[in-house]
Specification:
The chain has one domain. The protein is 81% helix and 0% strand. It has helices spanning 3-13, 16-45, 49-53, 59-84, 88-109, 114-129. Helix 4 (59-84) runs antiparallel to helix 5 (88-109) and helix 5 (88-109) packs antiparallel against helix 6 (114-129). It is elongated, with a radius of gyration of 17 Å.
């Protein structure tokens, strides 16, 4: 049996709902990472940019917020990849990352959107349903 056969066998054992959920997380994390990376770069050329799009007008906090968001979206990307490979580490790291994303938004933006909470709960419940399939 070759290595290619092993990887194709792994992909066939992933439940379709878990695969869709992981792919959505991958796309969401890439978009989030790119947004905060490009916003940070644009901030260098237009110093008022982050202040215009935020409810928190403290400039040093906004730069720190962008950096933290980039790191958390990168962690979410890695978590989704681990979930695609059916690793329990991916589940736990995704759980921690989603909690940190919610906490960072509340801490830096002084608000939290109900949609973020609902999406996080739905993702965690969906992946928890397939917890036994994870290695």
């Amino acid at each position: 049996m070759t290595h290619k056969d092993d990887t194709s066998n792994i992909k066939q054992n992933i439940p379709i709902i878990l695969r869709i959920c992981a792919i959505i997380i991958l796309v969401m994390s890439i978009i989030g990472f790119l947004f905060f990376a490009l916003a940070s770069i644009y901030q260098l050329y237009n110093p008022g940019f982050l202040q215009n799009i935020s409810s928190n007008n403290q400039y040093p906090h906004l730069v720190l917020y962008s950096i933290i968001q980039m790191v958390l979206h990168l962690a979410m990307f890695i978590s989704a990849l681990l979930i695609l490979y059916l690793k329990k580490k991916g589940y736990y790291s995704l759980l921690i990352t989603l909690i940190l994303l919610l906490a960072s938004q509340f801490f830096f933006e002084n608000q939290i959107t109900l949609a973020y909470i609902v999406i996080s709960i739905i993702v965690i419940i969906t992946i928890s349903f397939f917890y036994r399939k994870l290695n």
